[in-house]
Write a structure and sequence with these properties.
This protein is mainly alpha-helical and 199 residues long. It has one domain (24-198). The protein has helices at residues 2-16, 24-35, 44-53, 58-82, 84-94, 98-121, 126-135, 140-165, 167-175, 177-198. α6 crosses α10 (177-198). The chain is globular and about 40 Å long.
Length: 199
């Protein structure tokens, strides 16, 4: 477990390092884009680092994050639609998310829009839902609109916290990173429970 936490801290520090480089907004866009289809670290990490640096631009960064994530979700959709056997299945298997992927098919049969919107807002691996949307031929418009709602709601909530409360939240996250990581896993499970209950 310690090795996993160490690896996560190093990856988190690497992502946060982009906040202090020129073109940080583009870095945020890029990470948000690739996280929606295959990258493991959520863009919230860099969004938080940027919001702490310049709180007045928090909402601008949230918008960049949302646009990048939605467009990245469209890439995930295309991977699922056209390249699932070649690429999509490998991504799902790499993260050990095969069981979640199968569950997503059931959720899409019930209410794809709600499932995607909830997944976009929660810590559930969003890439599973974008790839599955293409593989199960969910209408692209459903993915886009639900992603705007779910991902936009999440990123603007994060931006709001840092706009109003600033550095204190960042210090809290750094201090209790391990406990928050475990909490993230709990929320992951609860997120799937919430989808099962709501959809």
């Amino acid at each position: 477990m310690r090795i996993i936490f160490l690896w996560l801290r190093r990856l988190k520090a690497w992502v946060e390092g982009f906040a202090h480089k020129p073109g940080a907004g583009w870095s945020l866009f890029g990470i948000a884009f690739i996280e929606s289809s295959f990258f493991p670290i959520p863009p919230d990490v860099l969004l938080i680092a940027l919001a702490v640096s310049i709180p007045k631009r928090s909402f601008r960064y949230a918008l960049i994050c949302t646009v990048g994530s939605v467009l990245g979700g469209m890439l995930g959709f295309w991977i699922g639609l056209e390249l699932f056997d070649l690429v999509g299945r490998s991504i799902i298997d790499f993260y050990g998310l095969h069981e979640h992927y199968l569950r997503v098919q059931e959720l899409y049969n019930d209410n794809a829009f709600s499932a995607i919107a909830i997944a976009g807002f929660t810590p559930i691996p969003y890439k599973v839902f974008t790839i599955a949307a293409g593989a199960f031929q969910v209408p692209l418009a459903t993915l886009v609109y639900a992603s705007i709602l779910g991902r936009g709601g999440r990123f603007f909530l994060v931006a709001s916290l840092f706009y109003w409360f600033g550095v204190g939240i960042k210090a809290f996250i750094d201090k209790y990173f391990e406990a928050l990581s475990l909490g993230f896993v709990v929320l992951l499970v609860l997120g799937f429970v919430a989808i099962r209950w709501i959809v």
